[in-house]
């Protein structure tokens, strides 16, 4: 007896700049070609699928496009202060100061731009959409990879 069926999509991502603070220090600004993988588990519907691959890919591409070619900043870091005034966004860390064009940054509702936190908001956003549209879907796993050797995975029940 089948307990659960899942589908998985990968090969979608975004390129973004970031830095993470830890213990009063910050990494240098750098970037990753982030790769996102999504696994969706649920019951097979009357069309013989958990969810159409095309639908989930379109949703995921939309989310990744918002983050592509941006500097990602955390709104709730204890170490990173962000001051946006019009076209300029100033960022102060314990040991550095940056100025970015406001249109090039994206301030996210997280404590640090770690892979874990990025996976968490992608999962929450994707989950909110899926929950309403696909009642047969029970669980969502989102993995955000910074490179081929390191990734964070967040699993949420819907
Ligand atoms: Zn990094």
Model description:
With 158 residues, this protein is α+β, with helices and mostly antiparallel strands. It has a single domain (5-72, 110-157), classed as 2-Layer Sandwich (Tetrahydropterin Synthase, Chain A), CATH 3.30.479.10. 22% of the residues lie in helices and 47% in strands. The protein has 2 helices and 11 strands, in the order ββββαβββββαββ. The protein has helices at residues 53-67, 115-133; strands at 5-18, 21-22, 25-26, 30-42, 70-74, 81-85, 88-92, 97-101, 105-108, 137-147, 150-157. The strands form 3 sheets. A 6-stranded mixed sheet has the order 9-5-1-4-10-11. A 3-stranded antiparallel sheet has the order 6-7-8, with no helix packed on it. The longest helix has 19 residues, at 115-133. The relative contact order is 0.20. The mean pLDDT is 95. Zinc ion is lined by residues 18, 30, 32, 146.
């Amino acid at each position: 007896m089948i307990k659960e069926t899942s589908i998985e999509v990968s090969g979608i991502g975004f390129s973004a700049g970031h830095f993470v603070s830890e213990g009063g220090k910050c990494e240098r600004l750098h970037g990753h070609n982030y790769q996102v993988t999504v696994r969706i588990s649920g019951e097979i519907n009357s069309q013989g699928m958990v969810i159409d691959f095309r639908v989930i890919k379109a949703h995921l591409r939309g989310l990744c496009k918002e983050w592509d070619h941006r500097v990602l900043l955390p709104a709730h870091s204890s170490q990173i202060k962000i001051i946006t005034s019009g076209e300029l966004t100033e960022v102060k860390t314990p040991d550095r100061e940056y100025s970015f064009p406001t249109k090039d940054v994206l301030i996210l509702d997280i404590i640090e731009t770690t892979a874990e936190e990025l996976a968490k908001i992608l999962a929450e956003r994707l989950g909110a959409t899926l929950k309403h549209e696909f009642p047969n879907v029970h669980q969502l796993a989102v993995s955000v990879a910074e490179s081929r050797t390191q990734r964070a995975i967040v699993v949420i029940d819907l």
